Structures are given as structure tokens and as C-alpha cells.
Amino acid sequence: MMTSKIDSPPPYEEALHHPKYDNFPYLPQHVSPLPPPPSYSPSPGYWGQGGVYPPASMCQGPGFPPSGMPTTIPTLSAGLPASNPGEMEDFLSTQWESTSVRHAFIRKVYLILSAQLAVTFSVVAVFTFVDPVRMFVISYPGIYWASFVVYFVVYCILVCCKEPRRRFPWNLVLLGVFTLALSYMAGAISSYYGTKAVFIAMGVTALVCIAVTVFCFQTKVDFTSCGGLLCIAAVLLMIIGIVTAIVLSFQYVPWLHMLYAAIGAIVYTLFLVYNTQLLIGNRELAISPEEYIYGALSLYVDIVHIFLFILQVSGAATE
């Protein structure tokens, strides 16, 4: 018995040029050429060129932003849709403006602080090295208590009242009065100590301030979240100060005086760290850029108190 020969499928080229093989329905009669593959271009902006596959609106790869986006942005921020270039530009513009405003705020605060410290240590130098002035300050302690009252009142106004603290030029006037009052107090206290003790206190205070500033700009530890602990430390320092004053009023004990002064210097150094990180603004809490008077005031008070406490330690040590 003869069997019919089953024809095998023709090759593709033969079927393409000889469409007589119509017994294979899956073969298309009219074959259109396939689209060419996309040309590779290493340029970052090649997505925006015309005729390039795929279109810019359909694909965005890392390092290849669409047309209209800045090509210098390496990554996208978390939570911002990558398909919205307008929001990305607004976000980056806001971030840049915020950083520039913060830097200008820090420069302004440190400029004001430098002027305050220059006035204060000039007064301290005059009260320490000019003997007639030194004797006058020691002979009239009432001026010291008057300056203390001015210091306390102006401090309460600047800390508790937002309007005077932010209104120019009254904020600078109040800060100037406060600086003069505290400078007189620091100079009056320094007049009771020797020249060597004052020099040592100035040098140690400068080293502490530089070390704290460098530490705050480099560390990842957030001290702004420890405000409650610092308040407890301030209360304990006040209690220790009252007890020490009562004990020393009956009998002067040098080591007790040095211990209290050392604790006070440590506590105010921690306050300086806290207020410096508030100033920097990259932690949990931050000072508003409008509060440059408050920023300079807080740092200035911390530095002067560190100087006075270190002066007590050095003065007791050099006696």
C-alpha cells in the first residue's frame, strides 16, 4: 500500500518569495519590516532627542533624566514621584533655599556673638589690668547688683517676649544693653582674681568653645532631644550652688568651691552643645532663622558662664 507523501514546511525565504505555498495559514502574506532597534547614546540627555525609542514620557532611567530636568541631580528624594519633574524642581529649590537661609542665619549669629564676646573680654581686660578701675569696681559693689538687675530684666524680655526680640532695631538695642550689663558683671567678678587666673580662664574657655563647635558640626549624636536632662542638670546645679554658698559663708573650703565651679563649667558646656546644635538646625529641634537674636543670646550666656566657672577653678588653684 502506497502512502501519500507529507510535504514538509518550506523554508522561510522560499515561502516569502513564492507565496504559492498557501497550505500554511500561519504564514503572513505581506510582511512589514520590523522597527529598527534604538540607537545607543551615552549622552545624559539622549531621552529628549526626537525619533529615539522609547519616548521620554514613557521611561526614566537612573542617570538619564527626561528633557527639561537638570542633569546634575544624581538621585530622587524618597516620597517624591519621579514622573513629576515640576515637583522635583520645586522640592530641590526649596531644599537649596532652606540650606542657604540656614547658612546665612548661622553667619549672622556668629557675627553678633563675636561682637558681644569682643566687648565682654575687653571690659574684663580693663577691669583686670587697670588698677584704678579695678579698685573702683571693688569699692562700689552696688553697681554690680544694679547691672545684675538690668541683666535679669532684659534677659526675661528677650527670652519671654517674641515681639521685642524680632523687631529691628529694638532687638539689637536690648541685646546691646544686655551685653553691657553681663560684661560689667564678668569684669567685676574678674577684678577679684589675679591676672594669671584670668588668662588661664580665657584660654581654657576659648579651647572649650572651639572644641564644642567642631564637635557639633561633625557629630551625629543629637543633643537637642536631651532638653529634659539638661533642665534637671540646671536645677541640680542651682541646688548645689545654694548649698555651697551656705557652707562657704561659714568656712571657706577651697576644694568644695572648685568642685562646684567644675560642675557648673561642665553643665554649661553641655548647654553650649545643645544650643549650638539648635543653631545648626539638622537635628530633632532647631531655631527658626528669624530668631538670630535668641541664638546669639543663648550662646553668649553659655560662653560667659563657662568663663566665670573656669575662672573660679583657676583662681582657687592659683591661690
Automatic annotation (TrEMBL):
<feature type="transmembrane region" description="Helical">
    <location>
        <begin position="259"/>
        <end position="280"/>
    </location>
</feature>
<dbReference type="GO" id="GO:0005794">
    <property type="term" value="C:Golgi apparatus"/>
</dbReference>
<keyword id="KW-0472">Membrane</keyword>
<dbReference type="Pfam" id="PF01027">
    <property type="entry name" value="Bax1-I"/>
</dbReference>
<protein>
    <recommendedName>
        <fullName>Transmembrane BAX inhibitor motif containing 1b</fullName>
    </recommendedName>
</protein>
<dbReference type="GO" id="GO:2001234">
    <property type="term" value="P:negative regulation of apoptotic signaling pathway"/>
</dbReference>
<feature type="transmembrane region" description="Helical">
    <location>
        <begin position="109"/>
        <end position="130"/>
    </location>
</feature>
<keyword id="KW-1133">Transmembrane helix</keyword>
<feature type="transmembrane region" description="Helical">
    <location>
        <begin position="172"/>
        <end position="193"/>
    </location>
</feature>
<dbReference type="InterPro" id="IPR006214">
    <property type="entry name" value="Bax_inhibitor_1-related"/>
</dbReference>
<feature type="transmembrane region" description="Helical">
    <location>
        <begin position="229"/>
        <end position="253"/>
    </location>
</feature>
<feature type="transmembrane region" description="Helical">
    <location>
        <begin position="142"/>
        <end position="160"/>
    </location>
</feature>
<comment type="similarity">
    <text>Belongs to the BI1 family.</text>
</comment>
<feature type="transmembrane region" description="Helical">
    <location>
        <begin position="292"/>
        <end position="313"/>
    </location>
</feature>
<keyword id="KW-0812">Transmembrane</keyword>
<dbReference type="GO" id="GO:0016020">
    <property type="term" value="C:membrane"/>
</dbReference>
<feature type="transmembrane region" description="Helical">
    <location>
        <begin position="199"/>
        <end position="217"/>
    </location>
</feature>
<dbReference type="GO" id="GO:0005783">
    <property type="term" value="C:endoplasmic reticulum"/>
</dbReference>
